[in-house]
Design goal:
By secondary structure, the protein is of the alpha+beta class. The protein has 11 helices and 13 strands. The termini are far apart. One of its GO terms (molecular function) is glutamine synthetase activity.
């Protein structure tokens, strides 16, 4: 007897196959107990693993390579430069492929632990010029002109947990999308808070390695989370965010989960941003509210310029997120007190105290924090016309 494979039966077979063989990374099948056996092997005190981490030519993704050191570095200055093949990371041509890693920050490594380190790096070509995706170099030049302003930053980084085929973690396999919005923000429960182990493991890693992490919570889309860094003065704020993004993906890798910083994956669900808290010394002092109001007016005049650098794709993907429905609109600047739909939000507590900070809600989740910081400081502290 032959089974007639009608389109309906074929579709049902595909759905069943998907339900049984979830599209998670094969990493989730690997035993972490076996990994612990090797991670806990005794290593000579003079041997240290230093994992060099950098931003590749996309301006969004990160790369890493590990080398052995015969000493424990106490700062990034103790770490030598390294070179790598930039033709594989969109940072050089094959016939002139060398790119130089220049250490700029060092962190304790929560993955390999012990004396091992994470070394955040800038990238330069062999002529000593910063690569096109090295926006830290220019940000530092800007910040060096405004040290007396003590600019302070905090980032609210939203992200989605996914399978390797871009299906959100925890979303129904057979029925399309989860139940409507409203159940997931700061949620508790196995039916609505998906991937807490990943978020909490990441949180502990950041505390271990010295990042200024201030909190974490589930966001309003199923499988969407947010972690907050800062407030931190100067370039360390952006360094911390980049190493936090690296560690988030590294931790999720162990769980077989992928991480997406895409600003807007699904039309009917809230997108992901990187809301940026900003203040200067005068804003934080008594009577500083007037400086916050002045800053908002300056931001309005440079709205288009900021939108272009608040998304590595020149605002293309961020425009999908900033539609005016529950969020600000990409082509219109707005501000307000306690208004989460505004481009720039001032909390009611700040208004009542008449000092503090504001939140720029326009940067996309995949924004380069160095570019965000540079834009804010140039507009608000260097007084452009």
């Amino acid at each position: 007897m032959r089974l007639l494979l009608t389109p309906r039966i074929l579709n049902a077979c595909k759905i069943l196959h998907r339900a049984v063989h979830l599209d998670w990374s094969p990493n989730w099948k690997l035993s972490k107990k076996i990994w612990d056996r090797y991670r806990n092997l005794p290593i000579a005190n003079c041997k240290v693993q230093a994992t060099y981490v950098w931003i590749d030519g996309t301006g969004e993704n990160m790369r890493s390579k590990t080398r052995t050191m015969d000493y424990t570095p106490s700062s990034h200055k103790d770490c030598p430069n390294l070179n790598f093949n930039g033709s594989y990371t969109y940072q050089a041509e094959p016939k002139n492929s060398d790119v130089i890693l220049c250490p700029i920050a060092i962190y304790n490594d929560p993955i390999t632990q012990g004396n091992n380190k994470l070394v955040l790096c800038e990238t330069y070509d062999t002529e000593g010029r910063p690569t096109p995706s090295n926006h830290r170099h220019h940000c530092m030049e800007t910040l060096n002109h405004v040290c007396d302003k003590e600019p302070m930053f905090g980032f609210e980084q939203e992200f989605m947990m996914m399978d390797v085929n871009s299906r959100p973690f925890g979303w129904p396999v057979m029925s399309g999308e989860p139940s409507p919005l409203g159940s997931y923000y700061c949620s508790v429960g196995a039916d609505r808070a998906f991937g807490r182990e990943v978020a909490e493991s990441h949180y502990r890693c950041l505390l271990y390695c010295g990042v200024d992490i201030s909190g974490v919570n589930p966001e309003s889309t199923a499988s969407q989370w947010e972690f907050k860094t800062g407030p931190t003065i100067g370039i360390k704020a952006a360094d911390d965010l980049w190493i936090s993004r690296y560690l988030l993906q590294r931790v999720a890798e162990d769980y077989g989960v992928a991480i997406s910083f895409h600003p807007k994956l699904f039309k009917n669900w809230k997108g992901s941003g990187c809301h940026t808290n900003f203040s200067t010394k005068e804003m934080r002092e008594d009577g500083g509210y007037k400086y916050i109001e002045e800053a908002v007016k300056k931001l309005e005049k440079r709205h288009e310029d900021h939108i272009k650098v608040y998304d590595p794709r020149g605002g293309k993907y961020n425009a999908l997120r900033l539609t005016g429905h529950g969020v600000s609109k990409v082509d219109k600047f707005t501000s307000g007190v306690a208004d989460s739909t505004a481009s720039v939000k001032i909390s009611k507590a700040v208004m009542q105290k008449q000092k503090g900070h504001f939140v720029d809600r326009r940067p996309a989740a995949n924004a380069d924090p160095y570019q965000v910081m540079n834009a804010l400081v140039c507009t608000l502290c260097l007084n452009p016309q």
